[in-house]
Amino acid sequence: MTSASRWSSPWWLHATAIPDFRSEQGALARQNELTKPPGSLGMLEEVAIKFAAWQGQVKPQIQLPQCVVFAADHGVVAQGVSAFPQAVTVEMLKNFIAGGAAISVLARFHQMGLTVVNCGTAIPCEYLQGVIHRPVAAGTEDFSLQAAMTNEQAQQALDIGAEIIDQLEVGSDLFIAGEMGIGNTSAATCLAAMILDLPATALVGPGTGVTGENLHHKQQVLAASMRRAKEFVESPLQALEQVGGFELGAIAGAYIRAAQRGIPILVDGFIASTAALLAVQLNEGARDWMLFGHQSAEPGHARVLEALDAEPLLQLNMRLGEGSGAATALTIVKQALALHNEMATFAEASVSGQHLVSEAE
């Protein structure tokens, strides 16, 4: 499917939904009436108020969360930037659908829908049942030598994300994007560096476990890739074409489409946040629907979060991907909503609000 085949072009520029200001103000008023000093629950209060605005109700609930893992391979792996071979990507797809991956466990824990999408693996895997197959190509090209993808392929990747969001179960009220792809930390590093106009060496990290001389080699490869690509990049979409990945484009497209449909987004780690950065560059309205689950151990993640003016809920030194950090943070989100919805107000508990305010002071 190309961008022109289903959407008026370019669909990703269409307006996003507008959070409900009245519900936001109603939730804030409720927070100030709960039996606690105002602001004493910190970010938990902010989370509840955000969800009230997103859902258009003073007492929001998460009843049908969805996680979609987008998978693809990366040609730059040929340059020795990863500790694992590309065959692992397909092996992990099998693990996702068999229920053995970290995100599979967390999805069961949260009773969350889990969808796996093949956006373009190097090893054909269309025989795998339980996977949605939308391969753009058999992985990207080696972006140290040439553009990772064509303009048409970049748009196709965005379209995949939008299509998947439109296929989510009616009533889905939270979206988490996960990713899988050997080499995708390298792609995310270069994509973020290109958008932020930073050297790749300022963001590059171990990814799947590259250390020592191998990490130095990875830094050199990515720096050279940036030098090659920079002259061809004048827009966010061109950055995706030059150094991105099919799953990165699909996640960015999914984020934009979720924002257009008014579905709250809980963003995962470095790779997912880089896709969020791309999404916001393409459509700034997408940012209004994002909550950031955690700050990963990847050094580039802090720079991306700063650029997005994002304060993550957790910092646990995670760097797995798959949506696992966001799914872990979902527990905090659920607790925030439970506190907001179920705590007694001063009037209900016959407690003096002024007494609690005085204690806080």
Task: Produce the secondary structure layout.
Blueprint: H1 3-6, H2 21-33, H3 43-55, E1 65-72, H4 87-98, H5 102-110, E2 113-120, E3 132-133, H6 151-166, E4 174-180, H7 184-196, H8 212-229, H9 236-243, H10 246-261, E5 265-267, H11 270-282, E6 290-292, H12 299-307, H13 324-342, H14 346-349, H15 353-360
Helix pairs in contact: 2-3, 3-13, 5-13, 6-9, 6-10, 7-8, 7-9, 7-11, 10-11, 11-12
Q: What is shown here, in short?
A:
This protein is of the alpha/beta class. Helices cover 48% and strands 9% of the residues.
Structure, explained:
By secondary structure, the chain is α/β, with parallel strands linked by helices. The protein folds into two domains: 19-60 and 339-360, Orthogonal Bundle (5,6-Dimethylbenzimidazole Phosphoribosyltransferase, Chain: A, domain 1), CATH 1.10.1610.10; 65-333, Nicotinate-nucleotide-dimethylbenzimidazole phosphoribosyltransferase (CobT), large domain (Rossmann fold, 3-Layer(aba) Sandwich). It is 48% helix and 9% strand. The protein has helices at residues 3-6, 21-33, 43-55, 87-98, 102-110, 151-166, 184-196, 212-229, 236-243, 246-261, 270-282, 299-307, 324-342, 346-349, 353-360, and strands at residues 65-72, 113-120, 132-133, 174-180, 265-267, 290-292. Strands 3-2-1-4 form a four-stranded parallel β-sheet, with helices on both faces. It has a two-stranded parallel sheet with strand order 5-6. Helix 11 (270-282) packs parallel to helix 12 (299-307). The longest helix is centred in the last third of the chain and has 19 residues, at 324-342. The radius of gyration is 21 Å and the shape is globular. It starts with a helix and ends with a helix.
